[in-house]
Design brief:
single chain
Length: 60
Amino acid sequence: MTTLNLIFAVVGALIPPIVIVEALRSKAKDRWPEGLLTGVYLGVLGSISLIALLAHFGLR
């Protein structure tokens, strides 16, 4: 997998969470503090990035 493929894989994986979080943000403002929603979003992005890096470089 080339670096360009890795970049496209990570960006492609980030688009659905962005859409989901934006859709939920309007409904979640009553229940979720803004900081908590941002933390969950960043945690999801970090997990996806870690999985993509492990898939690219392999577990050695």
